[in-house]
Design a protein that fits this description.
Distance between the termini: 70 Å
Strand content: 25-35%
Strand order of the largest sheet: 3-4-5
Radius of gyration: 23 Å
Order of helices and strands: HHEEHEEEH
Number of strands: 5
């Protein structure tokens, strides 16, 4: 036999449901940032092998982290980071394009920026256009200057 709810119980249940929905829909607008030292410590941790990819270039194997994974790691550990393309330059002979990218970390106590470049051949036949590839390369390198994936650049010394 099913118990029948009173109108008061129904109203209380409805208010509880509304409160749960309000709590769920609330977007945090403060408290997501941390001190810069904490952010940098997290970014300097070794990236799990499962997130690292390998590509061949000029007969050498190169380990790298795809830009979209770098982006997710940045969002996780430095949620208030910003990035911007600072410059796009084609070589005088038109064979390469270089992009300068700046990443800025915004901590509760300070902020820090790092820039790097990425250069690719305009004749590169891989996925994406040359500017897109150069930007992704510059973005990854700027993040490495902040510690993210930096171990990949000197793993032969480890």
């Amino acid at each position: 036999m099913q118990k029948r709810r009173t109108k008061t119980e129904e109203k209380e249940k409805e208010k509880e449901k509304e409160k749960e929905e309000d709590d769920y829909n609330e977007i945090p607008t403060e408290g997501i940032s941390r001190p810069l030292s904490v952010i940098l410590k997290q970014l300097n941790k070794k990236v799990p092998e499962s997130l690292i990819r390998v590509r061949s270039e000029d007969g050498f194997s190169i380990n790298y982290i795809p830009w979209h994974i770098v982006n997710r790691i940045m969002n996780l550990h430095a949620p208030e980071w910003t990035g911007e393309v600072r410059n796009i330059t084609y070589s005088p002979d038109g064979k390469t394009v270089s992009v300068v990218y700046r990443v800025t970390l915004h901590g509760t106590d300070a902020e820090i920026s790092r820039e790097s470049t990425g250069t690719v051949s305009v004749d590169d036949k891989g996925y994406g256009d040359p500017v897109q590839k150069a930007e992704a390369m510059a973005f990854r390198r700027a993040c490495a200057r902040l510690g993210l994936g930096l171990h990949l650049y000197h793993e032969d010394l480890l």
